[in-house]
Design goal:
The complex is a heterodimer of chains A (about 280) and B (about 290). Chain A is of the alpha/beta class. Chain A folds into two domains: about 230 residues, 3-Layer(aba) Sandwich (Rossmann fold), CATH 3.40.50; about 40 residues, no CATH class. Chain A has eleven helices and ten strands. Chain B starts with a strand and ends in a 9-residue tail after the last helix. Classes of the chains: A alpha/beta (about 280), B alpha/beta (about 290).
Chain lengths: ~280, ~290
């Protein structure tokens, strides 16, 4: 698979006297994949996401997006390929109505009105928010607000979607709706998704997980490999999957448990077999 | 008992054409030093309900008792000051309410407002800072240069400095990472156990309800539709799903095993409870032989 993003030896310091927020980070993102970036609060994952979009002027290293190396001259070309959603739904509204807000990105790109109207309409439909077109954003729930933010991104049809803890302030229903929608958009719009998250379910849905700690990339693997780390997951800023919690609880009670990560269904099967084995 | 609601109804803009009833005929009691979780879909009336515990909203009809205090529709605001000190409220994202130059001043603000001398309030502030798990070196720092989780602790210390006997928490862990979430929930558990605080927790995290709550109230469309111990409330997964509520993971898992014929004495709600019952059923006299 081709790489849509290549990051090489990236370092960043917020302040000359402080410790670097990113230290020599290198990785690739494959076109069309869902990549999760995890790490505890303050590990540098949000700094990394902002660097990819040219929101932070990194001090060393290179970022190449779809063949374009990110520089002050190319930053607008790079940004046209990336859509970003942040944590707090209230911080990313500019329009007075849902419709205006979805149109904002297109207006910025000076898309003619005749093209803009159907694209806004289609984007709102795609995220299931058409009936809210005339509503004030403040009257929406958190989950609905994030869906509007997604519609704004769908309207400009970028290649890459970056979710920076975009579900962490939503209730469980809002969170699972949002993830379902992103999954659906990913296949209908051929998006590459990078999600920065603490949510174990969000990370479980990814093709690959990068673990960031203290500004450094410390691990890169598939979810099953990462989830087999047991209690060390908590240091990575993730919660334990339920099966890992149950294994730890069983181990404490003297039961020998399989070391590999098990999905809920696999663990249920294993337990059933063990219990029936009289 | 610590808290009792008797037929409490709350209507926004009562007596106008815009009147909207957010809480309808709700009655329940929480015993002394209890731990109540309130769950329900967004917009079900949870926030309106809890804001009546310290009479930010007075009931439109009905009565509320909190320890020795009584709030009725006709209670006057001058009667409420001691109640407001008795019930500490931690709103969502409480860190947005920080405003002072230093952490110590911010925590000491409340007690001074209630008439405590500056020296006493500062001493109390330092004590509360330790209680929320931050050391004294933070006292002189600006609250605005702290991390999100630290800011939230400072805001909670400010509420604790009022020395409340009842602590009302509205989604206190939203937006924190799992480590921060766990530390925060353990802080409340400690306050509950060691200081005897009565806790009222509004949450969407069913795992926290399973782990910490002694009673659960389920709200829907302004009504209290279920009230009881966590085991009883979580026993009916289909009903919960119809109400767009989750079942704790351990209970879901136990119910799946139940479909294969495993019988549970009492529905396990946490990984530990589930493991206890599994080990008891483990073939060959207990786990030692596995």
């Amino acid at each position: 698979m081709a790489n849509i993003i290549e990051v090489k030896h990236l370092s960043y310091k917020y302040d000359e006297n402080q410790r670097p927020a990113l230290k020599d980070v290198s990785f690739d993102v494959h076109a069309g994949e869902w990549l999760a970036i995890v790490g505890h609060n303050g590990s540098g994952k949000s700094t990394l996401a902002k660097s990819l979009d040219g929101l932070l002027p990194f001090t060393e290293g290179t970022v190449t997006v779809d063949g374009i190396q990110l520089t002050p001259e190319t930053v607008w070309d790079v940004r046209s390929k990336i859509g970003m959603i942040f944590q707090n739904p209230d911080n990313q509204f500019v329009g007075a109505t849902v419709e205006d807000d979805v149109a904002f990105g297109l207006e910025n790109r000076q898309i003619p009105r005749a093209d803009m109207l159907p694209r806004v309409q289609a984007a709102m439909e795609e995220v299931g928010m058409s009936e809210f077109a005339q509503r004030e954003p403040s009257s929406l729930s958190g989950g609905q607000k994030q869906r509007v933010a997604l519609a704004g991104i769908v309207a400009i049809a970028p290649d890459i979607l970056i979710l920076d803890e975009a579900t962490s302030m939503l209730d469980p229903q809002g969170r699972s709706d949002m993830l379902k929608l992103v999954r659906q958009l990913r296949s209908s719009q051929q998006l590459t998704v990078i999600s920065i998250t603490h949510d174990i379910d969000e990370a479980a849905g990814a093709d690959r997980i990068l673990v960031i700690d203290d500004g450094q990339l410390i691990e890169e693997a598939q979810p099953a490999t990462i989830f087999a780390r047991g209690e060390r997951l908590v240091d990575m800023g993730l919660d334990l999957p339920f099966t890992a919690k149950l294994k730890i609880a069983l181990q404490k009670r003297g039961v020998t448990v399989p070391t590999a990560y098990q999905t809920t269904a696999e663990m249920e099967e294993w337990l059933w077999q063990s219990l029936s084995n009289t | 008992m610590a808290i009792s609601f008797e037929h409490v109804t709350y209507t926004y803009q009562a007596g106008t054409p815009l009147a909207q009833t957010a809480v309808q005929d709700v009655s329940f009691t929480v015993p002394d030093h209890g731990y109540l979780a309130i769950i329900g879909h967004t917009g079900s009336g949870k926030s309106t309900l809890i804001q009546q515990i310290n009479a930010l909203f007075k009931p439109t009809s009905g009565e509320i008792h909190v320890d020795d205090f009584t709030v009725t529709p006709t209670t006057t605001n001058t009667d409420l000051k001691p109640l407001r000190q008795h019930v500490g409220m931690v709103f969502q994202f409480p860190e947005s309410q920080l405003f002072e130059e230093t952490v110590r001043k911010d925590i000491a603000f409340g007690p001074q407002n209630f008439g405590m001398s500056e020296d006493d309030a500062n001493a109390l502030a330092d004590e509360m800072l330790t209680r929320v798990g931050l050391d004294k070196s933070y006292a002189e720092r600006s609250p605005f240069e702290l991390s999100g989780g630290q800011m939230r602790r400072v805001a909670i210390a400010g509420v604790l400095a009022m020395q409340p006997q009842v602590l009302v928490l509205d989604e206190p862990t939203a937006g924190l990472d799992p480590q921060g979430r766990q530390a925060m929930m353990q802080l409340f558990e400690r306050l509950h156990r060691e200081q005897g605080l009565t806790i009222v927790l509004v949450t969407h995290q069913m795992e926290d309800v399973a782990e910490y709550a002694e009673q659960v109230a389920v709200m829907r469309d302004g009504k209290l539709v279920k009230f009881g111990q966590p085991q009883d409330v979580f026993a009916d997964p289909q009903w919960l799903r119809e109400n767009q509520l989750d079942v704790p993971r351990a209970a879901q898992f136990a119910q799946e095993l139940g479909k294969r014929g495993v019988q549970w004495n009492k529905l396990p709600l946490t990984a530990d409870q589930l493991a206890d019952q599994l080990v008891a059923r483990w073939p060959g006299e207990g786990a030692d032989h596995v």
